[in-house]
């Protein structure tokens, strides 16, 4: 398997604090890589750097062999990297359908003038955006809520909507920041099945998550961070038995 | 979706009927001139609505763009003898260019920088109109600006010309609202970080909205100059910019129709205050400034979403209640209620 995303010596400082220190890993084509670690381990910071939200202090991120250091945040979606957010970032006053249609932005090109005059290209793209968005709403089970205003939806549905919004452009890499947070057991299981389907359809996933059931059941490999540093990497089984990981989660009792 | 378009079509049909009938049913030329001024203001406020309500940027410079448009068209027609139909296009382009330069200068248009920058720009522009005497005629202004030959120079002809342009601007903006670009504006307003992760170039789209609002204000300014026939810098100051802002806020920032409704309302209040001032001798001076200030404060306190979205919510609630009554005691879950709510521009 070839590497889709390569992260090399990635570091990030906030003021004088080093939140992420020389982290190195790769996401291979077609895999689900889980990034785990105790609170404050730097997982979300890594995800924010990989998605272009914040620049790294040091190190390099390569996607399909191309360095992303000079790429603007909004261009990541054009490369095929999309994400969801730990604290939901939904467009509350739009409908569920419109939210997902925004996800097609990088796949469409109509200009302001074309949109205002409803030129044929804009109409065609609008139709395509709507079809793709509806397809994804069906896939995540939100089709009956398509015309509902997003702000009126419960939390679990909004999580699904964010996934549909990130997936509608058929990205190569999907970044998920704690997608199971706040969900019940059934919802988590449904979400795990959805991620496996997404992976089967050809999108690789980098997953930051606390829910160990989800991680152990769907992750191909796991990278463990503790205090900004990578302490382990391997299959779910290897990670479960790794003494350094157990110590990081439970404490060694020596400190 | 079909229903949504149906609702939209009905609103538009009502608008068209009211607009076409207005100059025919009102008793005299005074009301027609009020109608014309409302139309001129509406072109500006619909543009401001795109910047403020959709893209979430506050502009206090719309009156300056309006004035720049007015002077551009006035100078080009009176001094260079060009046709108003040509100069109106230039009148849109010049303020749009100013908006572009201003927007580019404040890189990123983050936070309240645009409000600050447009505040300063508004003052500078008005000073420029006053001091550049060789071109603008200074504080005493310009006279004999040619009228636009449209249905024989009548007030009614002018009314239909201006409201025809209002209709085009309205349609353009409504189309935009429900498009890739309009959704990008609205996405930026709610979450810049999510918009960016969807591939939206936040800076570029904010700039686009701002430039478009400048162009709309410029067209309106040009029409204003030819309608009035005379021009001086007085109407293009901060007072007018805040009036535009009040119109957009009172009608409901998130709604294009809201901008139109707010414009009509504020203008009628304005006219009402003038009448009141004639009846009650003590009510003179800057009464409308005080009233509009009070309206703005009250709206922000009690109805921050504005009139049109509030009325829509009330109507939807009533419809939901009616539907619930028909369906007997079936428990209405959150998701069922949610499906009944619709987003309309």
Q: What would you say this structure looks like, in words?
A:
The complex is a heterodimer of chains A (255) and B (345). Chain A is globular, with a radius of gyration of 19 Å. Chain A is built from ten helices and ten strands. Chain A is α/β, with parallel strands linked by helices. The model of chain A has no long low-confidence stretch (mean pLDDT 91). With 345 residues, chain B is an all-alpha fold. In chain B, helix 4 (84-105) packs antiparallel against helix 10 (202-228). Residues 1-7 and 328-343 of chain B have low confidence and may be disordered.
Secondary-structure map with pairings?
The complex is a heterodimer of chains A (255) and B (345).
Chain A: E1 3-14, E2 17-28, E3 32-36, H1 43-50, E4 58-63, E5 66-67, H2 76-79, E6 81-83, H3 96-102, H4 112-116, H5 120-140, H6 155-167, E7 173-177, H7 185-200, E8 204-208, H8 212-218, E9 221-226, E10 229-234, H9 236-241, H10 243-250
Parallel strand pairs in A: 3-8, 3-9, 6-7, 7-8
Antiparallel strand pairs in A: 1-2, 1-4, 4-5, 9-10
Helix pairs in contact in A: 3-5, 3-6, 5-6
Chain B: H1 2-25, H2 29-54, H3 62-80, H4 84-105, H5 113-131, H6 133-136, H7 155-177, H8 180-190, H9 192-197, H10 202-228, H11 238-251, H12 256-279, H13 287-302, H14 307-326, H15 334-340
Helix pairs in contact in B: 1-7, 2-7, 2-8, 2-10, 2-11, 2-12, 3-4, 3-5, 3-10, 4-10, 7-8, 8-10, 11-12, 11-13
Question: Can you describe this structure in just a few lines?
Answer:
Chain A is of the alpha/beta class and 255 residues long.
Key attributes of the depicted protein:
heterodimer; A: 255 residues; alpha/beta; 6-stranded mixed beta sheet; 4-stranded antiparallel beta sheet; 37% helix; 24% strand; B: 345 residues; mainly alpha; ABC transporter involved in vitamin B12 uptake, BtuC; 15 helices; globular; disordered N terminus
């Amino acid at each position: 398997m070839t590497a889709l995303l390569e992260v090399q010596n990635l570091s990030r400082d906030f003021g004088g604090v080093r939140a992420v220190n020389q982290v190195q890993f790769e996401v291979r084509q077609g895999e689900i890589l889980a990034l785990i670690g105790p609170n404050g381990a730097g997982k979300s910071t890594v995800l924010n750097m990989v998605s272009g939200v914040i620049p790294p202090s040091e190190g390099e991120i390569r996607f399909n062999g191309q360095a992303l250091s000079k790429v603007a945040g909004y261009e990541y979606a054009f490369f095929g990297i999309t994400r969801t957010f730990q604290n939901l970032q939904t467009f509350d006053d739009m409908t569920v359908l419109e939210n997902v249609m925004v996800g097609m932005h990088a796949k469409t090109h109509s200009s302001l003038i074309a949109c205002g005059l409803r030129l044929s290209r804009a109409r065609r793209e609008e139709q395509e955006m709507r079809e793709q968005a509806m397809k994804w709403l069906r896939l995540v089970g939100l089709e009956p809520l398509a015309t509902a205003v997003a702000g009126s939806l419960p939390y679990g549905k909004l999580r699904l909507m964010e996934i549909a919004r990130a997936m509608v452009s058929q990205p190569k890499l999907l970044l998920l920041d704690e997608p199971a947070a706040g969900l019940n057991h059934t919802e988590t299981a449904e979400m795990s099945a959805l991620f496996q389907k997404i992976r089967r359809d050809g999108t690789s996933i980098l997953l930051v998550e606390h829910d160990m059931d989800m991680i152990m059941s769907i992750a191909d490999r796991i990278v463990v961070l503790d205090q900004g540093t990578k302490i382990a990497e391997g299959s779910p089984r290897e990670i479960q038995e790794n003494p350094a990981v157990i110590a990081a989660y439970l404490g060694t009792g020596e400190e | 979706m079909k229903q949504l378009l149906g609702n939209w079509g009905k609103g538009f049909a009502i608008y068209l009927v009211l607009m076409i009938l207005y100059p025919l049913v009102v008793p005299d030329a005074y009301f027609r001139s009020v109608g014309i001024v409302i139309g001129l203001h509406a072109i500006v406020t619909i543009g401001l609505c795109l910047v403020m309500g959709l893209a979430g940027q506050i502009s206090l410079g719309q009156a300056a763009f309006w004035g720049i448009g007015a002077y551009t068209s006035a100078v080009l027609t009176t001094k260079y003898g060009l046709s108003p139909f040509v100069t109106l296009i230039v009148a849109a382009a010049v303020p749009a260019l100013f908006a572009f330069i201003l927007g580019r200068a404040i890189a990123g248009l983050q936070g309240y920088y645009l409000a600050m920058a447009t505040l300063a720009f508004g003052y500078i522009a008005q000073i420029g109109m006053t001091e550049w005497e060789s071109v603008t005629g200074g504080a005493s202004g310009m006279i004999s600006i040619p009228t636009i030959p449209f249905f024989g120079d009548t007030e009614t002809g002018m009314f239909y010309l201006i409201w025809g342009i209002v209709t085009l601007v309205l349609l353009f903006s409504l189309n935009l609202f429900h498009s890739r670009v309009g959704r990008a504006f609205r996405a930026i307003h709610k979450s810049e970080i999510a918009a960016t992760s969807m591939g939206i170039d936040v800076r570029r789209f904010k700039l686009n909205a701002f430039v478009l609002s400048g162009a709309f204000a410029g067209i309106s300014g040009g029409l204003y100059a030819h309608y009035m026939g005379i021009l001086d810098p007085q109407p293009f100051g901060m007072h007018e910019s805040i009036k535009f802002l009040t119109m957009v806020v009172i009608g409901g920032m998130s709604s294009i129709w809201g901008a139109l409704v707010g414009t009509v309302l504020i203008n009628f209040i304005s006219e009402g205050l003038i009448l009141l001032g004639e009846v009650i001798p003590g009510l003179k001076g800057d009464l409308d400034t005080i009233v509009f200030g009070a309206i703005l404060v009250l709206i922000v306190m009690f109805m921050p979403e504005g009139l049109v979205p509030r009325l829509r919510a009330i109507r939807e609630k009533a419809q939901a209640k009616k539907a619930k009554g028909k369906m007997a005691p079936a428990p209405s879950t959150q998701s069922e209620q949610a499906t009944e709510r619709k987003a309309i521009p």
